[in-house]
Amino acid sequence: MSSTDTTMQSIPRTGRLVPIVVFIVAIALIALTPFLGNYYIRVVNGLLIYILLGIGLNIVIGYAGLLDLGFVAFYAVGAYTYGLLASAQLGIHLPFLLIVLIAALLGMLVGILLGVPVLKLRGDYLAIVTLGFGEIIRILVNNVDWLTGGPKGIARLDKASIFGIEIARPVDFYWLLLVTVFIVATIVWRMEKSILGKAWAAIREDQDAARGIGINTTNAKLAAFATSATIGSIAGVIFAASQRFVSPESFSLQESVLIVLMIVIGGIGNILGIIAGAAILILLPEVLREFAEWRILFLGLLMIALIILRPAGIVPRSFGPERLIRGLFGK
Amino acid sequence: MTLVFDNLRKQYGNNVAIDAVSTRFEPGLIHGIIGPNGAGKSTLINMTAGSYTVSAGSISLDDRKLSGLKKYQIANAGIARTYQNIRLFDQMTVLENLEVCFYPQEVGQTWKEVIWPPFAKKREARRQDACMELLSFFNLQGYAHAYAGSLPYGRQRMLEIARALVTNPKVLLLDEPAAGLNHHETAELTAKLSELKSQNRVMIIVEHDMDLVMALCDRIVVMHHGKLLFQGTPGEVQASSDVQLAYLGTANDIDDIKAAAQDRRAQLGIRTRQRS
C-alpha cells in the first residue's frame, strides 16, 4: 500500500476562482449596502446579528458537537443588560461600550452556570435541558414585571454612542455590526484552529477517546459554552441598542431553532457556511414577502432538498475560511 | 517506573469480573496478557486506563496511585491506550488526530495562540514536526491530510498506536492490536512493536494471536475466570499444564492452544470485515 494512492482521499485543494469570486462579491455587497434605503439596511443589520448568533452557537454545536437548543437565552441576557443599564427603567444610563463589556462577562457567567450542571448530559438529553433553560429565561423576563417590564418590555432605551459618536441610524449600526462580525469571526476561527479547537473536534468525534488522550472534557466543553454565551450576549446588546426596545417575544424558542437551522443548512462547523445559511434564512423571507404564508413550506422543502443533495450543508466544513484565504493569496 | 496491580478486584453486582489480581509490569519488557474469552483481560486494560472504576485493591505507577483518578488524569499521568474496536477521531485528519494529544500541555496558552498568529504558527509547526516523525515511523506520512476515518482498516490500527505514543507515555496498553489484520500487517505490527520497546516504557499487550504473543512478549500473564492463573516467560507458559487446561479443558501441547486461538482470530476477522 503505497502513499501515492492516498491523494484522492486527501482534502482537495480548491482552485483560486471560487475564493476570488466570493471575495469580490462580498466586498461589493459590503460597499453597496450603505447606499440602499433604510429598510434594506435594517434587513442587512438583522442578517448580521443572526450571523453573529450563528457564529456563537456554532462553537457549541459545530465544533464541540453539543446540541444546544436554548441559545436564545444568552441573546436575551445581553439585550436585557442593555435594556436595564441604558434606560429609565432603573434610572441607570451607562455608556454603550461599558455595557457591551458587562454583558459579555455576564453572558460568560450565565454560560458557565448553565454549563456546569448540564454538560454531563449528552445528545438528546442535553438538547432537552438547554431547551428548557431557554424557555425558563424567557418566562422569567416575562414575569418579573418590576425589573423587566414583563410582556410590555422596556421601551425608549438610550441611543448608543461610542467615544462621543452617536450610533443611531441603521447605517451606523451596519458599520458597527460589520466590524463586530469581522472581529468575532476572526477570533472564533483562530480558536477553531488552536489546540482548544482541536480538542473540541475530538470531543465531538469521540468523547471517551478524547478523555483517553488526557483532555479534561468538562473544562473544554465549558470553554465552548462560555465563549458561545459571550457572543450571544454581545449580539443581544447590539440588537437592543438598534431596536431601542426589548420584550420577551424576541427570545422565543423559534429563534433558537432558526439559528440551529441556519447552521445546519449553511454548513455545520464552518463560519462561511453560517454566513450562507443566515443569508438564505433571513433574506429569503424578505424576497418572498408576498408569499409569506408559504414560508414554512419553502423552508421544509429546502430542508428536504438539502438532506438529499448536500447533507454537509451548502458550504461544507472542508471549504472553510482557511481555503478562502489560501485561494486569495495563492498559497 | 513500574506498574503495580495490588489485590485488584472488579465486581458488577454479585458478578466478580476480576478477583484478587496482584502483579507487576516492568519497563523495558513487553508484557502479554492472555486467557480464554471472558477471562478479564480487557477489563484489566480498561481499569488501568480509567475507563472502568476499580472495585477494590489498587493500581499504581511507581509510588503514584492511579486507581480513583479520572480517566483524563490517568492519561496525563503517562498511561496511553488503544482500543479493541478502533476509536479514532474519524472526521479529523490523520495529522490532527496526533496533534490534539498536545492539548494537556498546550491548552494553558490558547489565548496567546488566538491573539498572536506568529506564536500559533510556531507552535503548530513544532507540533506537526513531532507528529510527522511519528507518522513516518508507522509509514503513515502519505495519509497525513486524509481523514482518519477514510484510512484502510490496517492503517487505522497503526494510527491508533501512533496516537497513543504522541506524548511519549510511560505505559502503553494495547488492546488486541492485531485483531482484524492480515498476515502481512501482523508481521509489520510485530516489527514495529518490538522497535518500540524502551527502558522508559512499560508495554502491555492483550492479544489472541498466540504467534504474535509468543514472538513478542518477554513476560506473559495468563488470566482465567477473572483470576491470575499463571505468569512467566513464553517458554514457561507454553510448558504449563495449568494454562493448557484453562484453554482446552485437557492438557495438551501448544499446537492445540494455537488452534483454539486461531479459531478465535477467525471469528474476530469475520466480525471486523462486516463492520468495515
UniProtKB/TrEMBL annotation, chain A:
<protein>
    <submittedName>
        <fullName>Branched-chain amino acid ABC transporter permease</fullName>
    </submittedName>
</protein>
<feature type="transmembrane region" description="Helical">
    <location>
        <begin position="173"/>
        <end position="191"/>
    </location>
</feature>
<dbReference type="InterPro" id="IPR001851">
    <property type="entry name" value="ABC_transp_permease"/>
</dbReference>
<feature type="transmembrane region" description="Helical">
    <location>
        <begin position="296"/>
        <end position="314"/>
    </location>
</feature>
<dbReference type="InterPro" id="IPR043428">
    <property type="entry name" value="LivM-like"/>
</dbReference>
<keyword id="KW-0472">Membrane</keyword>
<keyword id="KW-1133">Transmembrane helix</keyword>
<feature type="transmembrane region" description="Helical">
    <location>
        <begin position="20"/>
        <end position="41"/>
    </location>
</feature>
<keyword id="KW-1003">Cell membrane</keyword>
<feature type="transmembrane region" description="Helical">
    <location>
        <begin position="96"/>
        <end position="116"/>
    </location>
</feature>
<keyword id="KW-0812">Transmembrane</keyword>
<feature type="transmembrane region" description="Helical">
    <location>
        <begin position="222"/>
        <end position="245"/>
    </location>
</feature>
<dbReference type="GO" id="GO:0005886">
    <property type="term" value="C:plasma membrane"/>
</dbReference>
<feature type="transmembrane region" description="Helical">
    <location>
        <begin position="48"/>
        <end position="76"/>
    </location>
</feature>
<dbReference type="Pfam" id="PF02653">
    <property type="entry name" value="BPD_transp_2"/>
</dbReference>
<feature type="transmembrane region" description="Helical">
    <location>
        <begin position="257"/>
        <end position="284"/>
    </location>
</feature>
<dbReference type="GO" id="GO:0015658">
    <property type="term" value="F:branched-chain amino acid transmembrane transporter activity"/>
</dbReference>
UniProtKB/TrEMBL annotation, chain B:
<keyword id="KW-0547">Nucleotide-binding</keyword>
<keyword id="KW-0067">ATP-binding</keyword>
<dbReference type="GO" id="GO:0005886">
    <property type="term" value="C:plasma membrane"/>
</dbReference>
<dbReference type="InterPro" id="IPR003439">
    <property type="entry name" value="ABC_transporter-like_ATP-bd"/>
</dbReference>
<keyword id="KW-0813">Transport</keyword>
<dbReference type="InterPro" id="IPR003593">
    <property type="entry name" value="AAA+_ATPase"/>
</dbReference>
<dbReference type="InterPro" id="IPR027417">
    <property type="entry name" value="P-loop_NTPase"/>
</dbReference>
<dbReference type="GO" id="GO:0005524">
    <property type="term" value="F:ATP binding"/>
</dbReference>
<dbReference type="InterPro" id="IPR051120">
    <property type="entry name" value="ABC_AA/LPS_Transport"/>
</dbReference>
<dbReference type="GO" id="GO:0016887">
    <property type="term" value="F:ATP hydrolysis activity"/>
</dbReference>
<feature type="domain" description="ABC transporter">
    <location>
        <begin position="3"/>
        <end position="250"/>
    </location>
</feature>
<protein>
    <submittedName>
        <fullName>ABC transporter ATP-binding protein</fullName>
    </submittedName>
</protein>
<dbReference type="Pfam" id="PF00005">
    <property type="entry name" value="ABC_tran"/>
</dbReference>
